[in-house]
Amino acid sequence: MKTRIRFVNHASVVLECDGINILTDPWFNGSVFDNGWKLIYENSKNDIKDIINNVQYIYISHEHPDHFSPNFFLDHEFKNILLNKKVKILFQETLDKRIVNFFKKNGLETIEIKANKALKINKNLEINIVKFGYIDSALIVKSFNHKILNLNDSPLNKDSEIYKFKKKYGTFDTLLTQFSYAAWKGGKNNYNFRKQAALEKLETIKKQSNILECNSVIPFASFIYFSNEMNKYMNDNINNPEDVYKEMINEKNIVFLSPGETQPVNDLKQKKESLDFWGKEFSSINEKKFERYNTTISYNELEKLYNKYKKKIFSLNSKFIIKTLSKIKFLNFFQDLNIRLVDHMKNYKFSLFNGFRESESKVVDIYMHSQSLSFILKNNFGFDTLTINGCFESSKEGFIKSTKSLAIGSLNSMGVYLNFKLIFKTQIIFFFFRLIKKVSNKLN
């Protein structure tokens, strides 16, 4: 029996093998990342019901809302189908159990898969989840004599990293991987950063597919547009399927699938109508509806949120360590942050120790809307969301300073806390500094 792949949308496909259907990362409609992203194409509800009526498993790669969409699982009709069909959720084992508990609360059976521990679905189908960093995961599917690697957003970029991965997991027949940039790239005037990021993504696909000796590549997980008035400029250099296809076709069998298209994985072929479909969709991005932050959050409301945020940060992290880090000036952690709220047309000083108040300072570290600041204060993952949706402006120095002040919530959302136990987790410290250095180098 042949293994087939059906493309659904963005990072969502159905892998069909020996009567078993595995759906990946279902996100099919609506805005994500605080009204910063939308799908270029949205599926009809009937199409989605048809798909989930025929799946036995759903794999969720990580917690970002373009991969784990709570609205999908909370939709009354979808949820009833999943419950009636007794669909099982496949997810990486985590310490916080937050996603697993969400599924349990909603009555959905979840199989937590330990890193590098294969799960045998049946005699012809085996899967393996590979963890990357503190959020991402990749899926390896072995069926009959075919081996598939679904990388989605997993950061497998450098030659040395890919060779190391190959040594551990071997080669693959089919690769599914992201094909365009997916986060802030230096602000509105940093056109070259975005151009370079798009080119680097193409080079990464080439390295991944060549080193891992893949016969075919299915680019996916980039079928979005930056959908807010504050970030729509970021669409200027995103990779579109036609350009990616032209760049890659002489090196590799590269295949873009259109929504609903199904092909056998051992005989993938590019269909002209699929490229034409995406060409039309990408060329119409500027004609799509862009969202706006229309509600201004008052200073009084922001101050209340700040007080709750501060209390939460100190309940999860050591106040002593945060205070000590703020005193080491050359590290620049937890310094007073100068925020310009563009809808208030005022500057504010933000500090875990010196409060949140209006400021006369002419120096601005970061520009954002009051709705964005409100989102950061309400949600641990708020700053991570801001860096992905790009609805802000900042200089290189301002961005790094902002990261060293506001990213603590993002760390907490990954189950990482600033306490004395962290001293024994040097890999986390180095991971954070490497990320900052990487962004700093790019902004240069």
Fold and architecture overview:
There is one protein chain. By secondary structure, this protein is an alpha/beta fold. The protein folds into 2 domains: 4-287, 4-Layer Sandwich (Metallo-beta-lactamase, Chain A); 299-443, no CATH class. Helix content is 36%, strand content 22%. It has helices at 45-52, 70-74, 76-84, 98-105, 159-169, 191-211, 241-248, 272-283, 299-316, 319-327, 370-378, 382-389, 396-406, 408-413, 426-443; strands at residues 4-9, 12-17, 20-24, 37-39, 57-59, 88-92, 110-113, 119-122, 125-132, 136-143, 146-152, 174-178, 216-220, 224-226, 253-254, 262-264, 337-341, 346-351, 355-359, 366-368, 392-394. Helix 9 packs parallel to helix 11 (370-378). The termini are far apart.
Give descriptors for this structure.
alpha/beta; 21 strands; 15 helices; Metallo-beta-lactamase, Chain A; 444 residues; seven-stranded mixed sheet
Write the layout of secondary structure elements.
Elements lengths: L3 E6 L2 E6 L2 E5 L12 E3 L5 H8 L4 E3 L10 H5 L1 H9 L3 E5 L5 H8 L4 E4 L5 E4 L2 E8 L3 E8 L2 E7 L6 H11 L4 E5 L12 H21 L4 E5 L3 E3 L14 H8 L4 E2 L7 E3 L7 H12 L15 H18 L2 H9 L9 E5 L4 E6 L3 E5 L6 E3 L1 H9 L3 H8 L2 E3 L1 H11 L1 H6 L12 H18 L1
Parallel strand pairs: 3-5, 5-6, 6-7, 11-12, 12-13, 13-15, 17-20
Antiparallel strand pairs: 1-2, 1-16, 2-3, 4-14, 8-9, 9-10, 10-11, 17-18, 18-19, 20-21
Helix pairs in contact: 9-11, 11-12, 13-15
